[in-house]
Amino acid sequence: MYPNRADIARGLGRQVVDRSILPNLSDHMGEPWEEICRGFVRDEATRGRLPVRLSRVGRWWNTDHSTEIDVVGMNGRRVVLAGSVKWSKRVGRSELDRLRRATESPPNRSEDLHLVLFARETVEDIDDHDVSTYTAADLCA
User: Taking CA 46 as the corner, what is the angle to CA 132 and CA 123, rounded to the nearest 5 degrees?
Assistant: First the structure.
């Protein structure tokens, strides 16, 4: 917004939004979307709507930051839930496969780990019993 102060002051705020802000909005949504999804998991756990009990929810990455898991649910010291959060319109099998590989890294991982995928609009081709899927519409319902 700073470079557009003059246009905004002249009453051209709508044009600034259309020209400069909206086209680049997705570049800035990753981190807020991740936090929204972690909050959703916390709320679902509190309401007893998850297949696992959680005492904490956060994120995890290994020491060299080459592997990150966007949502990690703990029950005590055990990792019982792991999730991937993407602001992409569609998420599918390849993201689930990436998440499964990433979950091999955390210590104290439960053998019956529950997985969660979040996408902006659609999660495609996922019918695995150990995976829950959510979209932005699900979080707003």
Answer: 20
Average pLDDT for 127-137: 92
Burial class (CB in 10 A: 0-12, 13-18, 19+), 140: exposed
Domains annotated on the chain, with CATH: 27-140 (3.40.1340)
Higher pLDDT, 44 or 129: 44
Q: What is the mean pLDDT of residues 52-59?
A: 96
- Give one DSSP letter per residue of the chain, joined into a string: -GGGHHHHHTT-HHHHIIIIIGGGGGGG-HHHHHHHHHHHHHHHHHTT-SSS--SEEEEEE-TTSS-EEEEEEEETTEEEEEEEE--SSEE-HHHHHHHHHHTTSSTTEEEEEEEEEEESSEE-S---TTEEEEEHHHHH-
Q: Under a CB-based contact definition with an 8 Å cutoff, are residues 31 and 74 in contact?
A: no
Q: CA 14, CA 127: separation in Å to the nearest integer?
A: 42
* DSSP secondary structure of 62-80: -TTSS-EEEEEEEETTEEE
